[in-house]
Amino acid sequence: MSAPAGPRRRRASAPAELTRRSFLTDEPFGLCVEATMPGLDLRVWLTESRAGIRADLDRYGAVLFRGFAVDGAAGFGDCARAIDPELLGYLERAAPRTEVADKVFTSTEFTSDEWIPLHHEMSYSHNWPSLLYFYCDLAAESGGGTPLASEREVFPLIPAQIRERFERHGVRYVRNYGPDLDLPWQVVFQTGDRAEVEAYCRDSGTEFVWTGADGLRTTAVRQAVATHPRTGETVWFNHAHLFHVSTTPPEVRAALVAEFGLDGLPRNAFYGDGQPIEDEVVGLVGDTYRAAARSFPWRAGDVLVVDNFLATHGREPFTGARRVLVAMSDLYVNRGC
Question: Which terminus of the chain has fewer Cβ atoms in its 10 Å neighbourhood, N or C?
Answer without folding.
Answer: N
